Amino acid sequence: MADPRFYTGPQKLEPGLVALSETESRHAASSRRLAVGDEVVLFDGRGSEARGQIESIDRRAVRVEIAVVESRDADAPVELTLAVAFPKGPRQDVLVEKCTELGVAAIWPMRCERSIAEPSAHRLGKLRRTVIEACKQSQRAWLCELSDPVPFAEVVGSIGRFEAAVIADGSADRSNAGGPTSHKSVLALVGPEGGFTTEELEAARDAGCGALVLGQTILRTETAAIAAAVRLLC
């Protein structure tokens, strides 16, 4: 079994005595029931990782002694940003958790014409905690960036920042359906369950988006986002 893993960011991880946050300390002391001398792995969400031993422990302050900090490469061969029209309620958690586990670099909640939900600031805070937990579970060294909501037009205007961009489009020619890519940075747009409007599809295509077809059935938004991550990363 892998050693317990704890997040130390956003500050850069450095050798020495590292104090975990109150949330991570509570997880170590109460949930994991760790003790002085137990070995753990720390990561800062920016590629730095270190093994260490617990030097002192209580519910509010767990301190870990580390000697060597190592740098890890990116968690996936492609830096994938998913711009997604978020679903409602707990399905947001599924989307964020599973896409983080798969190695997605960033998730942008996207505001489309047919959007049905948009995470509030409070909800985003909880979802960012979901990102941390998913990174710990999947042993990622880099946090998936979860942005504030972004309008569709702003997403389209950002396409030039990426080597490639695709838009999930069930009406596209399946002979050119997209798949694993050699590009290092990719932006993928996934619409709401009502689909993108004709105007949105045309705007994305005019800006340089290729088509991404995710099978022959109609998918829920969170399923489509996960499918897009698998198709482009795996």
Question: What does this entry look like structurally?
Answer:
It is a single chain. The protein is an alpha/beta fold and 234 residues long. The chain folds into two domains: 5-71, Beta Barrel (Ribosomal Protein L25, Chain P), CATH 2.40.240.20; 79-233, SPOUT methyltransferase, trefoil knot domain (Alpha/beta knot), CATH 3.40.1280.10. It is 29% helix and 24% strand. The chain contains six helices and 13 strands. It has helices spanning 22-31, 91-102, 121-138, 152-157, 198-206, 221-233, and strands at 5-7, 16-19, 39-43, 48-56, 63-66, 70-71, 79-84, 106-111, 145-146, 150-151, 164-168, 185-190, 210-212. The strands form two sheets. Strands 7, 8, 9, 10, 11, 12 and 13 form a seven-stranded parallel beta sheet that branches. Strands 1, 2, 3, 4, 5 and 6 form a six-stranded mixed beta sheet that branches. Helix 2 runs parallel beside helix 3 and helix 2 runs parallel beside helix 6. The relative contact order is 0.15. The model has no long low-confidence stretch (mean pLDDT 93).
